[in-house]
Amino acid sequence: MFKRILKWTGFAVLAALLLISGAVMLRQHRVFDAPYPTIVRSTDSTVLARGKYLVYGPAHCADCHGKVGNEAAVNRGEIVDLPGGRAFPVEIGTIYARNISSDPETGVGAWPDSVLARSLRHGVGHDGRALFAFMPFTNMSESDLTAVISYVRTLNPVKNKVQENEMNLLGKIIKAFVIQPVGPSGTPPATLPIDTTVAYGEYMAKAVANCYGCHTDRDLRTGAFVGQPFAGGFHVDSPVDPTHYQCVSRNITPDPQTGRIYGWTFTQFQERFRKGKLIEHSAMPWGPFSRMSDEELKAIYNFLQTVKPVHNEIKEVLIAKKS
Question: For residue 242, what pLDDT band results from cuts at 50, 70 and 90?
Fold first, then answer.
């Protein structure tokens, strides 16, 4: 009797595993629907100048989509091609930055403006798949999104077929059942005046420069935020040696004991940004950020003084991974 129960239990477990495995495989190519923003590229010189500033500055597109090996040039502020290919190893597999040059075959040259805008605004790729929430631009203003897309359209076409993301078993399960497109949290503004107000600083910190995305701890298996806003603790692999090193983001809340920039004057804040990257393994795009305008830096500084203080001591900024 016991052997019969054990036998049928084994069959039931095997059947369940086969069903789950089948469901995981069938759901690897899920497609999602999302509206197409009415964004149309512009050839206006002022719009293109704003787009160039964002792409190579605060929006730091070049930091991820630049050619592998061009990191030093990006940090120096050179205008580099953006053919993608950089690997981002995470717990669920490896994500590869896409080619966003104007090449019609391997880049985004053949995509309508609305398709590119949907990817940035709603996290849905040109083929309907959910994009991993690495880019913080879902709440970017209509005018800034137009500027970015307009400038990207002027980039040199670079033929570079980037390989597909590689998901391990955990990644395939999460992709099948967890990953969803991330869209805007509200109605994005049509445009915003560039000034030093707290409101504009919040926009820059959350919708453009992604201070929130890196200085808030998150689960890289799902992309979900698990820490207090701007309190640091997010572990990011080194962009130059991801096998051996990780950096941990700082607590940038105004906590008197553990806030990294507590008590800093704006001059100190500004000077730190102008120095660029000091820790080789830091994933923060110091090069692009070093070219941010004084006005936008001041807005971010003003906003950070207003966020909730969180006591969260970051004891180590650079961590050597165990081999």
Answer: confident
